[in-house]
Amino acid sequence: METDKNEKNTLPIKHKRSKNGMNNLAGYIFISPWLIGFLLLTLWPILQSFYLSFTDYSLLSDPEWSGLDNYKKIFTRDDDFTASLSVTFIFVLVSLPLKLIFSLLVALMLNQKLKGMNFYRTVIYFPSLIGGSIAVSLLWRNIFGVDGYVNEMLSWFGIQGIGWVSNPDTALGSLVLLNIWQFGSTMVIFLAGLKQIPSELYESASVDGAAKVRKFFHITLPMLSPVMFFNLILGIIGSFQMFTAALIITKGGPMHSTYMYALFLYEKAFKHFQMGYASALAWVLLVIVAIITALNFFVSRYWVFYESDGKGDR
Amino acid sequence: MNQLKNKRKHFVLILFSVFMIYPVFWWLGASLKSIEEMKSPSLWPTEPIWDNYIQGWLFSPSEHTFAHFFSNTLLMELWNVAGGVITAAIVAYGFARLNFKLKGLWFSILLMTMMLPTQVTIVPQYILFNKLDLVNSYVPLILPHFFGGGAFFIFLLVQFIRGIPRDLDEAAKIDGASVYGIFLRIIFPLIKPSLVTVAIFTFIWSWDDFFAQVLYLTSVDKFTVGLALRMYIDQFEIQWGPMLAMAMVSIIPSAIIFFLAQKHFVEGIATTGIKG
Amino acid sequence: MKRKWSKSMGLLMLVILLTITACGSNNTNEGKTTNTPKPADNSSVSNNTVDNTKPVELSIMWWGPDTRHEATLKALEIYTNQHANITFKPEYLAWDAFWAKLPTLAASKSITDVLQMDAAYIQEYVGKGTLEDLSDIDLSGIVDSNVLENLKIDGKLYGIPLSQNAQGIAFNKTALEAAGVDLPQKDWTWDEYFEFGRTAKEKLPEGQYGISDTSDLWDWYLWYQTGNGGQPLMTDGGKTFTLDRDLFFEYHNTFAQLRQDKIVPPAEQQVALLENDPTSDPMGSGVVMTRGATTGSVNALESMLPGQIDVVNLPIGKAGGGWAQSTIFLSVSANSKNKEQAKEFLKWFITDAEAGKALALTRGIPINPKIYEALEPELTPQEKLGKKIYDVALDKALPFYPIAEGYSEWVDTYKATMQSVMFGKSSVEDAYEKLNNLGLEIAAKK
User: Fold this and answer.
1) Geometric angle at alpha carbon A127, from A121 and A128, rounded to 5°
2) Smallest Cβ distance to A141: which of C129, C280, C412?
3) Do C268 and C304 reside in the same domain of the chain?
4) Is the model's pTM score more than 0.80?
5) What's chain A's average pLDDT?
6) Residue, of C305 and C429, whose pLDDT is higher
7) What is the mean pLDDT of chain C?
8) Is residue C381 part of a domain?
């Protein structure tokens, strides 16, 4: 994402500014909190983790250089790597679109002037507050367990339920469902985007005789596309790092069917005492996510519509 | 006619809300159950054990009760939110309104920091803080919030600021305002709703940050609510009753804040002009 | 109007927040905290060669449930009362948190002076040099020298045993009797065990089983292999890996048959059963009538099924079965700056009578027979169950075979691989190949 490089200030005011509108000193002063924090607290750990990816490091004793061994193992010999990467990809590919669509629909539903809307919104947002609470582990295992609520509901329709969380074919699905259940933040962002669409657009469309559905596809969606993009990018970055739910509900099982990449990485580091290998895994993930994100940015110019495009501030 | 439509809307909303919140009802019921009753799928126990809440609150292994842990956590949140909101605003203004060398590079790095799993940076960071003798304090947990509060929030605020028309900026410039003045007098007041958003998300998301808390807070009197909760689950003994009870209670602050700040919340991101 | 309302609400929240935090104790700043009173200046207790006037603060870390925390804090208090110059900086966590945190402490070279250790992990920590050699602590008359010999790694002692532990099987006596099933008898063989499973299934009500499908539990297979005369999986510190082909196939084919005959819970159900979770424990939830249990874990099980449990030892093979050994220890960090004081404390921990009383059974059956004798008269029958497991397992017990350094990956892979077999997604053949290769690979690296 490029920030506005095209700002042209033509006003002849006294500012410390070079000819092409640069404001170096002020710029750096403003971003200094982040920059300092980054250099002090984050840069060294990041570089360190990069270094460690080329070592054998148990955490209990000092790192030993091992060159490209970790990376070689990742790309040639580790079944768990391929397994967890595919589990994660499936998770992202299934849960993200569902979450986005679902959030959008609910946002539409909550975007009305109705009494008690605040209350409804809070209730619907509530699951997202639960997040990493350890209680979720019990909750999910019980609701989706063999004797759980879901199966009870299914039995009303005469369907025999299975152990959703403990069956390798469906365990991942139960985690997808959890992820979607906690769609609150995504939904709220959509809601905000909806509120920002100028009502005049809808009014003039009505005047022209447009039906609701048309309005949705020709006004709402395009105007929402930047919000959708924002949610998409953050969603990708976030779901590739999904960890807590897999850890506390299924522990990656059964049969590694829910062995999310971040969990795999964590176990390698803290359970198998292979922090060096885990660091290599982390960097592989970063590259993958960065590529996907960059691709998305590239493709975005074909479907994301910025209102202020005229001013060319993309 | 309208009334009927409204009634229908309410009906759908209520149905949906119940559906969404059902697991939480189950949770509430389970927190009142005895150990034997836990295995049954019933929603509500035959004899609710309200004592679970009292026992949970009292937290036996020390002289501290959950009141203490709540106050620890709330105080930390106060600092987190203050730091996050102020510094995120400052940094976002820099990226959104100013041009400077290497801006693109730094912004890309900003985004990239979100892509590296924390599991691998946490150990070097711990070693760092350990050398500075800051372990067993809240400093490692709070400090990061004073450095911009996290890429997500900076990104969010950048979007919002870009949605504010530059006419106001220009007008101020004509009146002789400096870049700093514009920030303080024009931009900052205008992004207040978004800042509320940052505040709320910061609050909610740092409440549950288990791994960092377990690493940096060693003595029980410094525990957060989350850490205290985890004490209820050990190798052989899992005290679900008190744990579920306290877990339920621990969500309440976030829920209250969300409910109260609703208006600002939605408006905050609404005027964010995430559209670009 | 609305805006003003929420603004003042916000202000009110802020005020409330500040009030609460003002009432809570001071907690934002760094600095070490001690949970025990500051020492008085004169100390005349202690009879060792260590300088006992210099004030020392020992950091100590352990895991456990509430009861253990309370008891241990008390014991620490007693120690400070007896040795006024020693104070403690305790840290106590639950099991998961403890083992998640310890590696980080190791990496930053800041492991506490004293730490609790478990047989499951001690080899790993010793192998990487993080624990101090404790062989010079004189434990004669307190701990049997054979026991100590068995605990030595490379001829050195790295952890002081705290309690007697043993592996046995707990069974639901009440339910079995009600169904008219013969109860398990001491020293039953593996064949008898599987036979018991079959008979029980016939007589038990629908949905209940006599035995679990323990295919995915690596230690059960370890006990089967060694009980039947095979080598332990990892020997010689892990340099040798032995996965006996015949025994492996025998064991897992038996379970494959049991699954087919529906004598054990179906894979999906079995995998959802989590030991010690009151909501889904195999025995606690009433699904299976037997379960592995140790001296340490049987109490929790008892509280789920009060008065209904009895115990027996693990099935034996020609070489014996099960184990009876200490699995929980106190160790000293190799980086500790207070090693002598720490060692002194360790010895005191298992010898002092007052401490013994305070600690009671929170870590299992105290290793010191004198302390146990002192506690015994007041124990309830339930509490004595743990001792019973020990007594019943002792004579046929084999050594405890810990996970060797570098093999935690193998253990996790075992689980995933065998689950795959349980769900019918791969064959016992494939599982054997995979596990054998992985084990040999790890052994080769040593």
Assistant:
1) 85
2) C280
3) yes
4) yes
5) 82
6) C429
7) 85
8) yes
Q: Does a structural domain hold residue A275?
A: yes
One DSSP character per residue, B164-219 reads: S-HHHHHHHHHTT--HHHIIIIIIHHHTHHHHHHHHHHHHHHHHT-HHHHHHH--S
CB within 8 Å: C101 and B214: yes
A272 touching chain C per CB within 8 A? yes
Q: Which residues of chain B have pLDDT under 70?
A: 1, 39, 41, 60-61, 163, 235, 263-276
Selected residues 191-250 of chain A with any CB under 8 Å from a CB in chain B: 191-193, 195-196, 223, 225-227, 230, 234, 237, 240-241, 243-244
Chain B residues within an 8 Å CB radius of A195: 266-267, 270
Residues on chain C touching B240 (C-beta within 8 angstroms): 277-279
Domain range summary for chain B, segments of one domain joined by +: 1-49, 50-270
Question: Which of C105, C68, C403, A58 has its CA nearest to residue B122?
Answer: C105
Q: What is the domain range of residue A145? A: 80-311
- Residue A102 domain-assigned (yes or no): yes
Look at residue A163 in the predicted model and tell me its pLDDT. 81
Cβ contact C412–A271 (<8 Å) = yes
- What digits encode the pLDDT tens for the residues B161-183? 776 777 778 888 888 888 888 88
pLDDT of amino acid C188: 94
Name the band, by pLDDT with cuts 50, 70 and 90, for residue C13: very low
| Listed residues C391, C407, C428: the one ending a domain | C391
Contacts of C304 in chain B (CB under 8 A): 35-36
- Whether chain A has a CB inside 8 Å of the CB on C286: the answer is no
- Cα four-point dihedral sign B202, B203, B208, B213: positive
Which of A19, A129, A227, A270 has the most B C-beta neighbours within 10 Å, making it the best mutation to test the interface with B? Answer: A129
What is the ipTM score, two decimals?
Answer: 0.81
What is residue C245's predicted lDDT score, i.e. its pLDDT?
A: 95
- Residue C2, domain member (yes or no): no
Q: What is the pLDDT of residues A6-50, one digit of tens each?
A: 444 444 444 455 545 677 888 899 999 999 999 988 898 999 999
Chain A contact present for C419, CB below 8 A? yes
CB contact under 8 A, B214 and C303: no
Phi-psi region of A255 (alpha: psi -120 to 50; beta: other; left: phi over 0): left
Segment A215-222 shows an average pLDDT of: 83
Closest-CA distance, B63 to chain A, in angstroms, reads 24
* CATH number assigned to the domain covering B50-270: 1.10.3720.10
The domain of C201 spans 167-324+397-444
The answer to the question of residue C212 being in a domain is yes
Q: What is the CATH number of the domain that holds C380?
A: 3.40.190.10
Chain C residues with CB-CB distance to B260 below 8 A: 6, 9-10, 13
Task: Write down which residue in C372, C391, C410 finishes a domain.
Answer: C391
CATH number of the domain residue A222 falls in:
1.10.3720.10
The four Cα atoms B232, C112, C365, C377 give a dihedral, to 10 degrees, of -90
**Chain position carrying tokens 């309410």:** B10
> Does C103 contact A274 at a Cβ distance shorter than 8 Å?
no
List the single residue in A11, A15, A45 with the smallest CB-CB distance to B174: A11
Q: Does A115 lie at the interface with C, CB-CB under 8 angstroms?
A: no
Task: Please indicate, yes or no, if residue A138 is contained in any of the structural domains.
Answer: yes
A304 within some domain: yes
Alpha-carbon distance of A106 to A124, in angstroms, equals 9
